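ugh ok so i messed up the first submission bc i forgot one of the chains. this is the corrected input, ALL of the components this time, i swear. 561 residues overall. if the numbers dont match what u have on ur side tell me asap before i send this to the collaborators (the ones from the other lab, u know who)
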Amino acid sequence: MQDNNDNPPAGVTPEQATKMLDAWTEVLKLPTIGPMYAFSKDFASYADEFARLGKIMAEMKGHLDVYWGLVSTAYAKAAKDTAEKSPKQFATKEDFDGYRKAIIESFEDAFTGLFASAEFSSVYGKVFSSQMDMSKAMQTITEKNFKALNLPTRSEVDEILKDMHELKRAVRDLKKGMEALMNDAARV
Amino acid sequence: MTQQEFKPEKSEQPASPVENKEKKPAEGLARDLEENYRKLEKTRSVLHTAGKVEVGQTPHEILAETRAYRLLHYQPLAGKTARTPILTVYALINKSYVLDLQPDKSWIRSLLQQGFDVYLIDWKDPTSVDKYVSFDDYVNSYIDDCVDMVLKKNKVDKLTLHGYCMGASMSIMYTALHQEKVRNLAVIAPVIDTERDSTVIGNMAKNMDVMKMRDTVGNLPPEQLYACYSALKPFKQGVAKYFNLVQNIDNESFVGNFLRIEKWLYDTPQIAGETFRQWIADIYQKNLLAKNEFMLGDLVVDLSKITVPLLNLVADEDHLVSPDCSTPLNDMVSSQDKRLMRFHTGHVGLIASSYSQNNVLPKVGQWLKARSD
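and heres the new structure output, hopefully the right one now
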């Protein structure tokens, strides 16, 4: 929805959110000596991660605003085109069929145009990237708890997967190499 | 995706203008409304009682099964006319039964009826442990193993490699590296020169940070693929197909076809994270396959090394792989015997439609027969 020009925009801008979260991060850097040291270290680390998550969410909101703005514009264009292409009266089956066709054609043109545009590609990439950042931040927070419970983390499992995959490849290459050698030997 | 390519054998036509003039408009509208209501009710009933939708019915045996694939060998449906077996490589998107959707629209069945010995690689769904599985594994391990098994079973030293969509690109990669085992290369809608791709999918792929995706969520989730599909002809296909279903609900053949395609459209497995990263970052964003710089492990895929006979099938109305993205292949290979066939249909219509049965497959069969022992 369009804000009235006389009023400030509703909500917090990503820049404002970032500034505020940065300020909190600084505040949370408690003294690194004394009995509160261990607690403050853990707490600051969690607080940092939550502050990072907040920043990512603020960024994502900005990208989503642009994304939905583009969708709204395409929708408005499609609705306008539909109105222009629609039959002027609705008295017969053909009139209704014509209306249906007008809706489908107008919306198809408007949205296909949107999805094929460079602007959409760019904002889609940003939204996608923000989603991944958000998942990653949440995973990082969760992994801290896994460590506290002495459970293997996702990153550790991932390392094992990578090693296993490299081993599989090495075995494959060895097998193929041996087969080739045996074939050569058989020929000789 | 391409539901509209499946037109009913006989779709219902609106009443002629002469008949309409004889009716009073209000009476006609009331009757139409009643008829539409009946069809809507029937649609609801049909969809709720559809039960199991049969696909992939052509008889076959499973020659081999691993965690990654099943190698299917189809039973012959006619006297063998060609000694060279055909190994079909399906894509990693959705399921391979689209090549054997229903008996009268089956790509596989048609090849069998033309006397070919047909095998199919039916990829299994990757799980989270397959995050690092890459094209190197698909091409140099899985396809290579299947090729060896088919050659051994048929006691021949070469076969015809036949790929569709992403499977076509993988068949091309394989041929560039293991040409000694390939007699013919027959590809359908291959992704090659992505700089010339003008599809919505190509556009969406341009700015995707797929490395971040692989490292964060692992494999590509099906939901992300649905998001891409829904951006392809969103209203002409995404919405209009359901209107068409209601309109043609009395046409049994149309409804059967609709349900099979609908089942296939939403039968979407994950795609292994590293494979998807290579697909988007290396092939779509950097166009490495067309630049002969695409790497499979330590090996460079150089398309100019391909010298075997090539058949490249392209759909002029393909909105998933632009024809301009597929056609450069013929200029990039070194084969003397190469043929480009273009058809006036779409990506799925090319392989699973009445059009394909009548116009595409006879020509494919003819080309293959002339190049198979």
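quick check: Chain A has a mean pLDDT of 85. that seems consistent at least. Residues 14-151 of chain A form one domain.
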